[in-house]
# Entry
Amino acid sequence: MRLPVLTDAFARTVSYLRVSLTDRCNYRCLYCMPEEGVDLVPKSDVLTFEEVERIVRVMTGFGVRRVRLTGGEPTVRKDVVELVARLGRLGLEDLAMTTNGERLVELAAPLKRAGLTRLNVSIDTLDAEKFRAITRRGNLDKVLAGIDSARAAGFRNTKINAVVMGSVNDSDVPALCAWAWAREITPRFIESMPMSDGALFVPGSFVSAAQIRARVEAAFGALENDDASGLAGVGPARYQRVVAGAHAGARVGVISAVTEPFCATCNRVRLTATGQLHTCLALDDDTDLRVPLRAGASDEELARKVLNAVTAKKEGHSFTACGTGGPRKHMVAIGG
Ligand code: SAM
Ligand code: SF4
# Structure
């Protein structure tokens, strides 16, 4: 089914889909989930592999060729390798995954064989105790071994993501950079976003993109914009590279939804594990695709729902650095 390019009312084109495979997670990161967890969706509401594949296929009709699997934690979805293999047969240019890395030792090689092209691994610190405190249950050694397994399995262009929090892991920024660069991994640092109606946001601990870059520059010298990388403009991260010295040319990305919003170049939509299409991470409006899908909607009818949702996509959001302006939804349910 060939459809027009998906363009919203602000002339932005949708070329990228994030798919949450589950709202379950084996971690409880401070900024993402309350310690007691969140109300989980009934399993019967979670899209089957056939349903995920169907929606992704409809999106490819619009020319979407880049898909990222996320969660909760995507690797806790039963038989995730089988789903990757199914999606791998759809002729996508890029089929990536964002993961906490806890299960990569056993899954990296099967995921690669199934057709996964790239990995982003979330890792906020290289201090094992701090890592456990931030994730409330994570095992740093396992994650580091998982990243090694990913390389051994043939994954390249891996990125690590760290949410930066003042007095928690802001001082870890240089160590994360050096560790990543030594492994041909690109480190990316994320401003904390006030999801969950701001309930998990600690205003005093907010660290801005400018402060993150200052930390990198204090350790490694001046940064310059890395527009030549070919990555500028295709995602929310703004990349820079070290100008001179032992790490000259090394790249670092900052995702600054709060202080430097990138809504004007937003190219993505998100599908939750239960089949709701979200055109913005930061807003609560969504479009249900599961009910029509299960009621027998045709591909054309599903495509129309997608088109209507994208046409109504808002211009931007109103996140603030003091924790207001965010959505009620939890990050763990939408997947970043
Ligand atoms: N479980 C996987 C992981 O941690 O990589 C995938 C889902 S997780 C929600 C996706 C990304 O969102 C992670 O890199 C995580 O650090 C980030 N994230 C979670 N809560 C956030 C918040 N409040 N602000 C900014 N980033 C957040
Ligand atoms: Fe789980 Fe990822 Fe959220 Fe951490 S950031 S609680 S690993 S979904």
Q: What stands out?
A: The two ends are 29 Å apart (CA to CA). The first helix runs from residue 49 to 61. Residues 16-334 form a domain with the TIM Barrel fold (CATH 3.20.20.70).
